[in-house]
Amino acid sequence: MSSRSYFHIWYCLPKASREALKYKCNLTEDVRISLIKKADSTVAFKTVDTAKPSPNAKLDQHLSWSQITKAKNIFISNMHLGNYPPEHVKMFSAFYVNMELHPKLKEVHGERAFAWYHAKVHWDWYKSNEAGQPYDLSNINEGILQDCFQEIQSEDLDASIAQYVAPMS
Question: What is the model's pTM?
Answer without folding.
Answer: 0.74
